[in-house]
Here is the input.
Amino acid sequence: MKFFEAAKYYYLAGMHEPSGSLSCGFNAKFWADLTDTDRAILTHCGMAANDQMLADMNAQNGPALARLVEDQGVELRKFNDDVWDALGDGWAQVREDTRAHSQLASDIDDSFDQSLRQIGKWYVDSNAEFVGQRQRVLDLS
Here is the structure.
């Protein structure tokens, strides 16, 4: 069974958005035994693969969504605020539990929070504003 056969609605935006990210882990001894050159090669190959995946996702998600709507009759919907609020409450509990684990976990969470605030503000003030205005000015909605 295909996704659109099982689900009439497609909910935007998923809690996994705005993008995915790849990760790669190695055994610490294996990594330590590599030469600096080999570590650099693996690091940069991983970065390139992640960049390519992100570019492919951005290039292909719009057309794929259009096909779901236009060819398969899927209806787009948005989660209501109650769903987002419940996700936020759950996230707050996970973060609280994480912070209670150790000082290191708390320090990491502080850094994560600072990044979320800075990156989120940048995105809203720049990318989201630009894309919204471009869609409006060029009547692309």
